[in-house]
Design a protein that fits this description.
Length: about 325
């Protein structure tokens, strides 16, 4: 079993319930991972993913090896048949096969480069490991998806579930740097599995990949989208059509206390790290309705559920 995307979840409802059970007794399966090793390979920076996934593995009794691949590993070649007479020192064929001998599960973080849309959509690094590794692979955020994050988001929303069908709003917010679409993509895919009134709001031109958003509702008026919302999930992403570009940095899209007043006393969510007073004002993120720290805590239980399922599957 691999965990590459939200599509690997057979029943979101069931997985969320199982994760909440793990959260109650995180050390219950401490023996499951005995003598098993998780190898975590990072091609990009991380705080939450690195520590929560490591903690999840330790809760299961696993050994953990972490490698910051970009600074510590050989530069990899991903093209089959490449004549490697410049640049890359090692082919993914050998790298993935070798790491598979040291680890029982390989977890990979490799973001979008945001230069070549086709290359990012092909998920070169993640798919390279998936093709040549001989052990299960976990996506710790790839070019187009962050399924551990959105599983944690689903767990968090379940903890704050409303009596009525919730209105959930994914809102774009400005950011000084061009960011990938991975988090919103997986959030959209996860929301498509929920019984909710789900709305995506962003400036015109900032549409996500239509193959992912499918028939999810898009509202270009942020104030209108916020009306009666139960959850506000803020995130920046760079332009998908004008690939990787920042074509809008309008501060009117920042989530403010006035905008939150339009909602049904909504909870505020963000995957973190967050730029304060750019994405969201201090007043909102420091308010009682902000659940971003609890959301980050649930990253451990999302990762632990995934690792547990892989370990059980491998028995
Ligand atoms: N949300 C998230 O993935 O955080 P990190 O980038 O710090 O791992």
């Amino acid at each position: 079993m691999n965990y590459i995307s939200i599509q690997n979840i057979d029943s979101l409802n069931k997985w969320v319930k199982e994760a909440l059970k793990i959260k109650k007794k995180p050390l219950k399966n401490k023996k499951l991972g005995k003598n098993k090793t998780l190898g975590m390979l990072f091609f990009n920076s991380s705080l939450r993913t690195r520590l929560s996934t490591q903690k999840a593995a330790l809760n299961l009794g696993m050994n953990v090896m972490v490698m910051n691949f970009t600074s510590e590993g050989w530069t990899l070649e991903f093209e089959d048949g490449a004549i490697m007479n410049s640049g890359a020192s090692e082919h993914i064929k050998e790298a993935a096969a070798v790491v598979s001998q040291y680890c029982d599960i390989i977890a990979i973080r490799a973001f979008a480069g945001l230069v070549d849309k086709e290359k990012d959509n092909a998920e070169t690094v993640l798919m390279g490991f998936l093709k040549y590794a001989t052990v299960p692979v976990v996506n710790m955020e790839s070019a187009t998806g962050h399924p551990l994050q959105s599983l944690a988001d689903a767990i968090t929303m379940a903890e704050y579930k409303t009596e009525h069908k919730p209105k959930v709003v994914l809102t774009w917010a400005p950011h000084p740097k061009a960011l990938p679409q991975a988090v919103p993509n997986s959030f959209v895919e996860m929301m498509q599995l929920q019984d909710a009134d789900f709305v995506i709001t962003h400036p015109e031109g900032y549409e996500l990949n239509p193959e992912i958003t499918k028939d999810s509702k898009i509202e270009y008026d942020q104030d209108k989208a916020f009306e009666n919302a139960d959850f506000i999930y803020a995130k920046n992403w760079s332009n998908y059509k004008e690939y990787g570009k920042i074509t809008n940095s309008d501060p009117n899209w920042t989530v403010t206390a006035d905008k939150m007043k339009l909602t049904n006393n909504a909870k505020f969510m963000h995957c973190l790290p967050v730029r304060r007073n750019v994405i969201v004002t201090d007043e909102v993120i420091d308010s009682e309705n902000s659940i971003v720290i609890k959301q980050a805590n649930n990253r451990t239980y999302a990762a632990q559920l995934v690792l547990q399922k892989i370990l059980e599957n491998g028995k």
